[in-house]
Amino acid sequence: MTGRHESHKYLLESWLEFHAAIEAHPEIRRLLFDPVTGLPTTPLLFPRIESLLEERGEISLLCINIVKYSKIEEIYGWQVFDDVMRKVAVALEEITGSELRDSDIIAELMISGNAFVVLLSPPRTSDVMVNEHLSSLARRVEGRVCRALRSALDLPVFLKFGCYVGAATVRQDKSKRLERIVHDALDQALDQADSREAVDADERKARLRDIISNEDVRTFVHPVIHLPDRTVMGYEALTRGPEGGEFERPDKLFKVAYDSDLVLKLERLCRHKALQVASQMPANRLMFINIEPEAVVDPELRDVVFSSMLNEADLSPGQIVLEITERAAITDFPTFRSTLEYLRTLGFAIAVDDAGAGYGSLQCLAETRPEWLKIDMSLTRGVDTDEARQQLVTSLVTFADRMDVKLIAEGIETAEQLAMLESLGVVYGQGFYFTEPVAPFPDDADVCGA
Known about the structure:
The chain is 48% helix and 17% strand. The chain is built from 18 helices and twelve strands.
């Protein structure tokens, strides 16, 4: 892995000849190098660009634009975003010698920004870079970075990560300042990256429309266990997209649905499929069906269509718990609350998911007054060793007892977590310790034999 470090040395000693000045004045490094990745910033590329333009008349560059970066920082904090940028820098370094050459120079557009620049060394076989070859290189770099980050990042972070690569060529123009023609090329490359993102979004939207039109989703169930006697008291219906594809996971399905204004259509399809599965469940069980906040105001939930659907499935509202997920913020609580009250009059129970996480979960809890409350897995994980998590769970148990709310701990994965939750007074649980989500309907012995 010599590409990046050799480029740094070449930049400093051969082009600018101020290595000693940086050693003597560290503040220069802070002004010209990104403190997170250690990469030089764009101004340090100018001497090399000027030299290549004098020699060859043109140079080419790539811009690697990290999109959704503000969302990563907003949800997970700046430390996580910094880690993402470091991993992108490592990924670019690791493809030096394959997609990139050792003589290509990697930099950042600006300090603490969200875009990288690769100054490409001249082509070996011609005086100019062919546009077709440049576009092909951009796609290969884009693919390699995304594949590297898929394995390097936690899945929830990766699902919010996006990387698009644009390319441009800088041609010598004695009538313009060097800085102007370089920045024009950088803008062109970033615009190309943005257009790649837009095309990608359109393609994903089209694929999601096909999934909805073809009803190409599957419903799995995840048993909810009554902990004192290890019996199954109900199931959560979980949607999966086409097997093996990018939409297999529900978080990706709904992310694209929100971006594409297709939430209600996707929600209706998932609800229909879940009710079909619920009609086959054993007697005296409940089915928890996830409802997006935006879908709570879906007219289908308020009219006779939904009741008719239940009748066709031979189900009563009392067998269904509508589980409010918090993938998006609730913006109109009065309307939201009145809709839930209407659903209660029909006989449905309400659950709030992800207690202890999500968008304003405490306000959601206060406004909805649910019959069921699910403890988020972020509290369950580590509850056996972390006193702070134990105290938070104890507070939720006390709240549930006083408000006559049934409490379910999600994400139970170990015997130690289970033992601690039971000692804290949690009565219901769900998690991989018992079983992974399975096709309907598993034998109880297979689920509760852990």
